[in-house]
Amino acid sequence: MSQEHWKSKIGFILAAAGSAIGLGAIWKFPYIAGTGGGGAFFLIFLLFTVILGAPLLIGEFIIGRRTKLDAVSAYQKIAPGSFWTVIGRLGVVTCFILLSFYSVIGGWIIIYLFEAIRGSLDGLSQDGYGTLFNDIIANPGPTLFAQFLFMLIAILVVAKGVQKGIEVTSKIMMPALFLLFLVLVIRSVSLDGSMEGIKFLLVPDFSKLTSESVLFALGQAFFTLSVGVSVMVTYASYLPKTQHLPQAAFSIIIINIFVALLAGLAIFPGVFSFGLEPDAGPVLIFAVLPAVFSNMQFGTLFFIIFLLLFLFAALTSAFSMLEIFVAATTKKDNTKRTKRSWQLGMLIFLVGIPSCLSYGVLSDFLLFDKTIFDLFDYTVSNILMPLGALLISLFIPLRMSKSMLYEEMALGSNVGKVFFHIWYYVLKYVTPIAIIIVFLDVLGLWDF
Ligand code: PFF
């Protein structure tokens, strides 16, 4: 049985950063920062990422590398036959649902890319972009086809394996993403009146912060780091003992924050410079950005570049979601990888069809007052991911000994005892308490 492993440390960091950076940082972050108070939201998001997200990320890495097993088997090995084995299965189910609707948005990016290249976005009015976008997502044929294409790319890369597929692709895609983003940011901040947008993102105005935006910032911190679903357990299981886990975690967190910052700096200066609204919501990127770019020289080209890197980012996240599934069902037996990637990828596509149709023929089909897309998104973001994160933050201090945790954390390079203890106690107390508060709020039992 041949086993996978990462070829290089940087390959692992880029692949894990690729999982983290996706629709969360590029699509969701600007619009919830836009509606949630700009700079103040950004600051709270930063704090949650560093204080709560980082310990969980290190924790998932430790579980993965210690056991060298897939997400389901890892918990079985540490706590055989116990309740805790539910964590791995929960992560797999969450990723399944998440990828089924994530691929819908991936499909929208592909269609928009196609439309931008074809020139159909040229010369439209601000309202025209919104109308065009709504027409596009309501049309079942092209959206389903694009969603299928998105899944197809994910299947082909994951079937190739960790080293040849995910690592090689991430190594090319991630640096390209930074470079392209830098071009966009330079263009955006050099616009007339861009200062207002920069201030909106970077100068905190706490009067704009609501309790809801604090909760969104917390959810966003977990979502963008891909923590709580054991994807990072799976990725870390391919790591050699020489990798220093806290260092890897902090590199990923810094890259993640940097990309969210770049996304904000690419978008808000343009939004303000052209007198658009920062709180346009989920349509911000699709309906507002083409207008921003259309007013620029070489605007279409810049927009095409933006969509390409947006697609790259969404794909590298999709790889990780499919990989957790493939690893768990093949038990890392590589001979079954190709077949499983196809079977699971196609199944996820089929399950995602109703989500795709939620913006068209199924828009009136509501369950619990939500379209299927919204229901899936709500269940994953507000219930399953925080639940997974909560269970992991309880599992580690309860079921893994302190000495074992320290030993695993300190492999590769020394780790100070003080750092270890801060990590341990934050994970043990601060993380679960914060997540429980979010839960109580979601259930409407706590209004803070
Ligand atoms: N971190 C990804 C994003 O921000 O788009 C979303 C994600 C990927 C969440 C993989 C969970 C996961 F397992």
From TrEMBL:
Protein localization: Membrane
Database matches in InterPro entries: Na/ntran_symport, SNS_sf, YocR/YhdH-like
PROSITE patterns xrefs: NA_NEUROTRAN_SYMP_3
Keyword Transmembrane helix annotated: yes
Subcellular location, principal: membrane
Keywords assigned by UniProt, alphabetized: Membrane, Transmembrane, Transmembrane helix, Transport
Transmembrane segments: 12-33, 39-63, 83-114, 144-162, 174-194, 214-236, 248-276, 296-326, 347-368, 380-398
Membrane topology: Multi-pass membrane protein
Protein name as it appears in the record: Sodium-dependent transporter
Species whose genome carries this gene: Terribacillus saccharophilus
